[in-house]
RNA sequence: GUGGGCGUAGCUCAGGGGCAGAGCACCGGGUUGUGGCCCCGGUGGCCGCGGGUUCAAAUCCCGUCGCUCACCCCA
């Protein structure tokens, strides 16, 4: 048997309905906040990611699906979306005009990691990016947008974690200070952190080792060493969060694994998913567009993990109800044509209708209808053909009424008392 | 990449040298044309794969693959 590739999962009903729900809500909220959808390739030149995410990050060092195409060019399945959004922004000259460009996109990402709960090699993100604005209000708006999506999905027990990572003015000096500290106390660092201290010193802050943390106590947090501009920016963002009643926790150790972040960085975490607790994360990336060859435009974005969101939703919420279904049970080949006509007529009015073509017993068809969750079953056989009337059974109450089968109108009336057709009939 | 747990029916799992099992699901019947509940019957298995020990292996041993949880890191 050929099985799915490690870390890749089939998404099946009823799970797909949950995803549809998530994406529908997200699209609606994006629309209210002035974000437009873009769709991007899953495959990019490898260089795009090495240059944007950072050569020394875990993603680039060991997690990318990279391979040569038939011409020997190195391509990579995108491990995240921001780099692609920025590439598209530059390539399509979307920087024209003074307004902030707001885009969202959703789709699969790929990282070659050992799968575990809440972590897959192909996973899905909903991304939002606002390019061309550096106002702290924009940072606040992004966070409000993210939280509104989560709120409208009724996800509970979430926490917003916030930090500022400084900018090209203040971070280098701080990194020098850190590096000097690590040079003095290198032997006190754990093995992982000795490696981290050389590659990306900020990540030592993530370490759980007691000795590493003690060493870090000798140096102030980056958030206390920000330049005036970064400080003002952070203060204004937090002030706005307060003003909108958004609770948050400042965590000076929140670093994030991509090199391009500047100033605002944030995550939304949950206590309900085990080790993989980040439901969404994002931050500002003021230097990235320029580094990738575009204009010097600041930007900010976030990503929501759809698998993790769906997992929370399935834990916290009842299944998404389906639309009422009309099932038509057929008795005998002669009635089949009429039944098919009726099914089509009902469907074309925007209602959900289905039937079985296999000439089964009525009992078998009733069982089938029940399993499908049909709300009404119309029974059509020779008698009904002759009388031009058929019994319509309400599957919840068990009661039947005779309806005309000249057309779909009486059948629709029975269904229509419960809902309108999808086309708003 | 490292470590723990687990691989037996479609699903959840029992069985730990001697006939391959249960519950649920599925199909049929009880009801000539009426679902759910109930009763009766049935289909369904390379016991993950390969090797070894043994008269005999789902069971013991070795290897391997897969799944899963955790570390690392992140969505």
A few lines on this structure:
By secondary structure, this protein is of the alpha+beta class.
Describe this structure in words.
It is a single chain. With 425 residues, this protein is α+β, with helices and mostly antiparallel strands. It has two domains: 15-170 and 226-316, BirA Bifunctional Protein, domain 2 (2-Layer Sandwich), CATH 3.30.930.10; 325-416, Anticodon-binding domain (Rossmann fold), CATH 3.40.50.800. The protein has helices at residues 15-32, 46-53, 58-62, 82-91, 136-152, 171-184, 191-199, 210-216, 228-243, 288-291, 306-316, 333-348, 362-372, 382-387, 409-416, and strands at 36-37, 43-45, 65-68, 74-77, 101-110, 122-131, 158-164, 249-250, 262-270, 278-284, 299-305, 325-330, 352-355, 376-380, 389-394, 400-404. The protein has an eight-stranded mixed sheet, sandwiched between helices. Helix 12 links the parallel strand 12 (325-330) and strand 13 (352-355). The longest helix has 18 residues, at 15-32. It is elongated, with a radius of gyration of 28 Å. The relative contact order is 0.12. It binds one RNA strand of 75 nucleotides through residues 3, 6, 57-59, 62-63, 80, 109, 111, 113-120, 123-126, 192, 203, 206, 256-258, 267, 274-281, 303-309, 329, 331, 361-371, 374, 377, 379, 381, 383, 391, 393, 395, 398, 400.
């Amino acid at each position: 048997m050929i099985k799915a590739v490690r870390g890749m999962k089939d998404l099946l009903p009823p799970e797909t309905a949950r995803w549809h729900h998530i994406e529908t809500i997200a699209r609606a909220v994006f629309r209210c906040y002035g974000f437009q959808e873009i769709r991007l390739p899953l495959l990019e030149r490898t260089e795009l990611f090495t240059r944007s995410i950072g050569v020394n990050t875990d993603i680039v060092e060991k997690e990318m699906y990279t391979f040569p195409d038939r011409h020997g060019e190195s391509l990579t399945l995108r491990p995240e979306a921001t780099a692609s959004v920025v590439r598209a922004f530059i390539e399509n000259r979307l920087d024209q005009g003074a307004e902030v460009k707001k885009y969202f996109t959703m789709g699969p990402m790929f990282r070659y990691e050992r799968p575990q709960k809440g972590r897959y090699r192909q996973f899905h993100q909903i991304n939002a990016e606002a390019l061309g604005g550096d106002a702290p209000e924009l940072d606040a708006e992004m966070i409000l947008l993210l939280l509104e999506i989560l709120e409208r999905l009724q996800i509970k027990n979430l926490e917003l974690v916030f930090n500022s990572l400084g900018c090209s003015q203040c971070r280098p000096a701080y990194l020098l200070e850190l590096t000097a500290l690590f040079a003095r106390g290198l032997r006190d660092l754990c093995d992982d952190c000795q490696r981290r201290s050389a590659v990306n010193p900020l990540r030592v802050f993530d370490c759980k080792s007691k000795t590493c943390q003690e060493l870090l106590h000798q140096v102030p947090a980056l958030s206390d060493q920000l330049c005036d501009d970064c400080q003002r920016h952070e203060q204004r963002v937090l002030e706005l969060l307060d003003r909108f009643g958004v609770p948050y926790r400042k965590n000076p150790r929140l670093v994030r694994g991509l090199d391009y972040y500047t100033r605002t960085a944030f995550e939304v975490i949950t206590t309900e998913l085990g080790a993989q607790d980040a439901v969404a994360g994002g931050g500002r990336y003021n230097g990235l567009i320029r580094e990738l060859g575009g204009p010097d435009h600041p930007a900010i974005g976030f990503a929501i993990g759809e698998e993790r969101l769906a997992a929370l939703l399935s834990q916290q919420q009842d299944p998404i109800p389906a639309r009422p279904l009309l099932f038509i049970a057929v008795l005998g080949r002669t009635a089949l044509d009429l039944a098919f006509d009726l099914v089509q007529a009902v469907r074309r009015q925007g209602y959900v209708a289905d039937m079985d073509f296999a000439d089964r017993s009525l009992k078998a068809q009733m069982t089938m209808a029940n399993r499908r969750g049909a709300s009404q079953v119309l029974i059509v056989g020779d008698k009904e053909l002759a009388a031009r009337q058929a019994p319509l059974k309400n599957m919840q109450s068990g009661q039947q009424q005779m309806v005309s089968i000249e057309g779909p109108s009486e059948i629709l009336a029975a269904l229509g008392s419960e809902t309108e057709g999808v086309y708003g009939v």
